[in-house]
Amino acid sequence: MPAEWRVEERTEPGASLHGSWPTVAEDPGRRTVALCRVTDTCLVLGSTQSELVVDRSRVEAAGISVVRRSSGGGAVLVTPADPVWVDVWIPAGDPLWHPQVDRAFDWLGRAWVEALARTGISGLTAHDQGFVACTRWSSVVCFGGVGAGEVVTGDGRKVVGLAQRRNRRGAWFHSACVLRWEAAPLVELLALDPDERRAAVIGLEGAVTGAADLADGLGVAAPDGLALAYSLIASLP
After folding, report:
1. Residue 89: which CATH number?
2. What is the rounded CA–CA span in Å between residue 134 and residue 187?
3. Domain residue limits at 158
């Protein structure tokens, strides 16, 4: 582990984890990585998403909180067990800093590919071109599309999603690696009619896969979430 990286574990409600990062706020001049684990199940919306995409009655009945992040993209369902959530802070001017937003993810995507390979999950790449809408639901669900740096299988299924927020001090990257993918629990919380809901589940099931799902297919041990997070830390440049 390079000495310049500061590492911490954060276990808090989803709203708190997305709202602030006290360590970075106090000392933004150092590379920092955090393993994030929520204490509640939450539906996380992108910064520009309308809350009209949420079926409030279903969310309330399930006891799920709705959280908004300050980075772009679509909705993500986050539970204490899945996905594996790792945040990274890069100060402005750091060798890993890139002024182009779409190129700023490159190194992090490559680190995730290496981290997954360390666990025996091979054949993955970091997407290095423009945004690709894998399904018609890409504007609503984060994993329905693939953006720069995000990790995909050889047949284009998304495994790791990335997002970022930037200011004059640096860039805060969110990364989420799915372990076991099921589209239905997320889709059921969206304001869709029954036909749309069925179509969304079908489309998203084929567009995404999880690290543990891939491990099963390769005949290797499914990675533990904490072990996978530390594999990523070991793969950071």
Report:
1. 3.30.930.10
2. 16
3. 6-235
